[in-house]
Amino acid sequence: MKVAITETVLRDANQSLIATRMPFSDFEGILEVLDNAGYHSLECWGGATFDSCLRYLSENPWERLRKIKSKVKKTKLQMLLRGQNILGYKHYPDDVVRKFVAHAAQNGMDIFRIFDALNDFRNIETAVDETLKQGKHAQGCICYTISPIHNIEKYVEMGKQLESLGVHSICIKDMAGIMGPQEAYDLVKALKQNVKLPIVLHTHSTTGLGPLTYLKAVEAGCDVIDTAISSFGGGTSQPPTETLNYALRQMGYDTGLNDKLLKQINDYFKPIKEKYIKSGLMDSFVMGTETDALVYQVPGGMLSNLIAQLKAQNAIDRLDEVLAEIPDVRKDLGYPPLVTPMSQMVGVQAVANVLAGERYKNISKEVKAYIRGEYGKAPGEISPELIKKVLGDEQPITTRFADTLEPAFEKTKKELGSMARDDEDVLSYIAFPQIAEKFFKEREERESRTVTYSIVRKQV
Ligand code: CO
To answer: Per 3-state DSSP, what percentage of the chain is helix, strand, and coil (rounded to 5)?
Structure first.
């Protein structure tokens, strides 16, 4: 029996533990070993890495991808793509989504894991279609959440929809780490019975359930699981690779992983982790087990955001009220999964409702746009009173929001002129205009410095 393992140290572990601040130079030296260890794939790009490269690390994310590809020749590279949001927080027009996927494919990406926060698959169909056109692996996601309207039948229905889009595999994405072992067993079993595609499970160790959940999922026939090498595993990251490898082998599964190389990888990352702890980048909070998430059904990351938000407003004593308000806001909004950007929107609204002493006295522009239908179709029914309050007599849109957007790639390319050196630069700019522009300037300065330096050296 085989189970394949995806290593997340370069993307999700990096994002969950140290806010995606690992520069390429910190992992460059271990890429060949990662390539030889026997992983199914290396998750190494997408999610917040793109933003972080440009914003904090002054790295060209496209160049990072090419450099990884030049050292990882056998193992498939994998990325996380937010469907029509690409790697940002708003919807982009289809031409931009297609260009982005095409360039990622041409620069070395193999597996595209594509999700929509609302599981509205109209928001992933363009990205899936382009991935297929590029001859790459399209993985469709089901964002997992717990609510009165989410159940196995509904998730199986989503699995069938994804299958009909032509994806190669299906990932159950439990971004909060709230899926229990029995839920995983039942869900994987049901999906295996109803769709013919490989099933991948993605969870986090946040609540401590992660490793247990993986074992039961594998027993139910799950084909691939995501883990992080132990120095970057556990806590809000993925369950540790070596631990799962050990347990699964004992249960008679073949993961194809090489123990000696896993040890080498872990030894490589240990001092890097120490460095992040010393600099304060890695907080003890993210390394612990957060069981409150089980009580409130609120992801760990969202809980720490709420605490920070309330402290900033000198209202930390209202935390219990806010936590009690969250399920009500979620219900009013039609039970969206608490993943970016919905987790932020629900959290901010719950705080506003409690602190104003009146529900929906203040409504953020994001929540208004959501109610207008600009993020897609809500999983359940949005409260009719809330719709009336926000829209008056206006009707929410029911078409796909991206259909209302004008193509943007060629127009932006023209506007940028020589500031963009290639199409990848244009895409970086469309995704994050201000920070990309700042990055282009820094790059220019850096290079002119090196050029002057080399001229001087030659003269000597
Ligand atoms: Co994750």
So the answer is: 55, 10, 35
